[in-house]
Design brief:
By secondary structure, the chain is α/β, with parallel strands linked by helices. Helices cover 51% and strands 16% of the residues.
Length: 793
């Protein structure tokens, strides 16, 4: 996209940039915005839009790391190339900058696993841990800390000792009666690194010391006692050595940073881009601006476009040109009716789109492959070049005709104005025809000339539009009416303002019959156009309402399916519990039988085993399908909200296959360490779904004596995936240790499967006398994939 600074100034593009600048967090972002270049092609533009869309989605569920005190550092580094030295305050700014860059790089590197476009930013960011560590010797005040070097520490310690001795000696002098009578103030002064006494003016020749300076009042003088001169000299020497050591350290730090100048420049560019992305997100949200649709055709279609300069006073307009429709749009209407604003609004929106930013237009607006914008707007007369208004416009249009091509957009305001109306109109028609046939450019033009209006009605690929005029209030409404030629309102306005009736009648007679008929025809077209536009706006409102109803309907379906699965899950859990209870009672009854009866009972139970196994498999299959639906429902809900789910540390999530809710402690190798109450689980990230439920928080278990349990026994045991021979000894040993450690209850995670391991663990629990109760877990504990064991107290 090519747009000259001259054209940007004409369309007042700075008004749009100022909106984004107002939402910037730092000067770094402002510098980046001011240097931002238009995209060179559709591919680059699509990449910028993808990055912005993913950034908006990321910000919906994440807080961006930032430091409002961060400032640009690149200019300081370039200045340091000459001086070789950055001050402590400047190095402090560099440290803050590098620290923020490192924190953002860490945050975005994790996020780019989901938001792939973030790599375009993170690849500009570098590792600066060694530089940050080196700069840690800078205190928050900008002063070098004593730990910057051993020599600096020793010099400051020595200086401190000498200063203390000087204060002691000075205090002794003040307490000496001979000296005290000569002093103006009974205090020790410290000026320019030396300890002094304030002596009365009349005692200047009597005081045993050297004159240094006179007080501002002139009534006293600053003098250095002879007794303090050796100590002051020592202080000065140490101060000079300290200053030299500080300069040496600062110079070393500066050299270390200058070596990384290129990397720091890239990092500053990345932080500026992040600041702009944050600004774009805020502008989009606050002002309801939108990211336009990009198409490869040479065209644009803007809905409710408005110029940022007008702010709340802007009247939104729908304007389009190009594609399979017309390539020239001729806008007519009364002066101050808003024709020029339409041209500028279109240019501002298209230019903003090619920067990859949201535009001041409604959702659904489209911008195509427009590679340049040219404009001839306003009064271009020049005294210096001896050009009239018409000549200046003519010179500009000649240059545009030379440079514009089939991918250009031309904005021609008041085409043919500034000269004889007939000649101006003829010239305007010729220019438009040349642009239509030879250049094939997109053209937005405004005019008052009838020949150009007639050309717009008859030429192929040319459309007409007009600015609406309210005949009742005799004022423009600033609304653009597409497909309707402008109606002359000069006689109507003159009548309203009290022009004598005789003059009005003569003006009407002066018009030819053809012109009167044309005016009447245009009036009819205006009325029909107005009705069609009302209908179109009603249809657009209904379309938006239907889209919202569709989204609400899909959300309701998800809620119903979720509720259905919860009901089925509870029923299956009860069924599994009944089966388990029946099995346990059967086993207990068999243990009380003897002989033939016991054998017959065993056979009967065995014959029912297959039926019970089938029922369990049915329950397990239903549970598996429910889990799949839960994960799919969560995915659809995120799509409706346009908010991808990214598990991260500290987030409360739900395990889809259990209903368990917990907090992610850490993430490693696509698995999350989850804390759910007193239990820790290692869960694949793909099995986690977002939730609004609150996770249970583990509390310290208190033993019977009232003391806190200190033995390191985990609150849960994971035996899922083990066979019975492996799991039972571990479970028995764990339960014994947990009971001795003072737990009131623990959790055994055995999984679901066919229930073989679960039944054996339940049999073990039933046989242990120190266990008071055991049960399958609740939905938020892991369901029947876990068993909660309670101990007797």
């Amino acid at each position: 996209m090519r747009i000259s600074e001259h054209v940007l100034n004409i369309v007042q593009f700075d008004a749009l940039l100022s909106v984004y600048a107002s939402r910037m967090k730092s000067e770094i972002g402002l510098n980046y915005l001011n240097s931002l270049q238009f995209c060179e092609g559709l591919k680059q533009l699509e990449l910028r839009q993808t990055l912005l869309r993913e950034w908006i989605s990321f910000c919906d569920s994440n807080n961006i790391v930032w430091n409002n005190n961060v400032s640009p550092v690149l200019l300081m580094l370039r200045s340091a190339k000459k001086s070789g030295l950055l001050t402590g305050e400047e190095l402090l700014k560099v440290r803050d900058f590098l620290t923020l860059e490192s924190r953002l790089r860490e945050q975005l590197t994790v996020a780019q696993k989901v938001y792939l476009s973030f790599s375009a930013v993170t690849r500009k960011m570098r590792e600066f841990s060694s530089e940050i560590k080196a700069l840690s010797v800078i205190e928050d005040s900008g002063r070098l800390s004593d730990s910057a070097s051993q020599k600096l520490r020793e010099l400051r310690e020595s200086s401190g000792i000498v200063k203390r001795n000087a204060r002691i000696s000075g205090q002794r002098l003040i307490e000496d009666d001979k000296i005290l009578n000569m002093l103006q103030e009974r205090a020790l002064a410290f000026r320019d690194g030396r300890f002094l006494l304030i002596v009365k003016q009349e005692n200047i020749n009597r005081f045993p010391g050297l004159f240094v300076d006179r007080s501002s009042s002139g009534n006293s003088v600053y003098m250095e006692p002879n007794a303090l001169t050796p100590l002051n000299n020592k202080i000065s020497i140490l101060a000079r050595e300290e200053n030299e050591e500080e300069r040496r350290i600062l110079a070393n730090l500066t050299r270390q940073l200058l070596v990384r100048e290129g990397a720091i420049e890239e990092a500053e560019n990345a932080l500026g881009e992040i600041d702009l992305l944050c600004s774009a997100d805020e502008v989009r949200s606050k002002y309801h601006w939108n990211i336009p649709i990009i198409k490869p055709q040479v065209m644009f279609k803007l809905f409710d476009a408005r110029h940022p300069l007008l702010k709340e006073r802007a009247v939104p307009v729908d304007v389009s040109c190009g594609g399979d429709a017309f390539r020239q749009l001729i806008i007519t209407g009364p002066n101050t009716g808003g024709k020029t604003v339409v041209l500028k609004s279109a240019a501002v929106c298209i230019a903003a789109a090619w920067l990859g930013l949201p535009i001041p237009a409604s959702e659904g607006s489209v911008v195509g492959a427009i590679n340049s914008i040219y404009a001839d707007i306003g009064d271009e007369q020049s005294i210096e070049q001896n050009l009239s208004t018409f000549s200046a416009h003519l010179k500009n249009i000649i240059n545009i005709l030379k440079e514009a091509d089939g991918h250009s957009l031309l904005l021609l305001d008041e085409l043919g104005a500034g000269t004889d109306p007939q000649e101006g109109g003829a010239l305007g028609v010729a220019i438009l025809e040349e642009l239509r046939v030879a250049n094939k450019s997109l053209v937005l033009a405004t005019t008052h000339h009838n020949p150009i209006k007639q050309y717009a009605l008859t030429a192929s690929g040319v459309e007409t539009a007009s600015m609406e005029f309210n005949p009742e209030t005799f004022s423009p409404t600033y609304r653009l009416l597409a497909g309707i030629p402008g109606r002359s309102n000069a006689i109507l306005i003159a009548t309203a303002f009290g022009m004598p009736r005789g003059v009005i009648e003569k003006a009407k007679r002066a018009l030819s019959e053809h012109e009167i008929t044309s005016e009447e025809m245009v009036a009819g077209i205006h009325e029909r156009g107005r009705l069609l536009e009302v209908r179109e706006r009603e249809l657009r409102v209904r379309e938006k309402q239907m889209e919202k109803q569709k989204a609400d309907y899909q959300q309701r379906i998800l809620e119903i399916e979720t509720r259905r699965d919860e009901i089925y899950s509870a029923a299956d859990k009860r069924a599994a519990g009944i089966i388990h209870e029946a099995e346990e009672k059967s086993k207990a009854m068999i243990r009380g039988l003897e002989g033939v009866v016991k054998s017959a009972a065993h056979k009967e139970i065995s014959s029912r085993h297959d039926d019970v196994a089938k029922l369990r498999r049915l329950i397990e299959n239903r549970h598996k399908k429910r889990n799949e639906r839960i994960i799919e429902a969560a995915r659809k809900e995120r799509e409706l909200k346009n908010a991808p789910f990214i598990p991260r540390e500290g987030m409360t999530v739900q395990v889809a296959d259990s209903g368990m809710v917990g907090v992610i402690e850490n993430i490693k190798n696509d698995r999350a360490q989850l804390i759910a109450g007193s239990m820790k689980l290692n869960v694949p990230l793909e099995n986690l779904i977002p939730t609004t439920k609150k996770a249970k928080v583990a509390e310290p278990v208190i033993d019977t004596s009232g003391g806190i349990r200190y033995e390191r026994v985990p609150s849960s045991l994971m035996v899922r995936g083990m066979n019975v021979g492996e799991a039972l000894p571990l479970t028995a040993n764990y339960l014994d240790r947990a009971m001795r450690a003072g737990y009131s209850s623990v959790i055994i995670v055995h999984g679901r499967g066919e229930g073989i391991l679960r039944r054996e663990i339940h049999s073990l629990c039933a046989s242990l006398k120190y266990i008071s109760d055991f049960r399958l877990g609740d939905a938020d504990e892991g369901g029947y994939g876990v068993t909660v064991v309670s101990f007797r107290r």
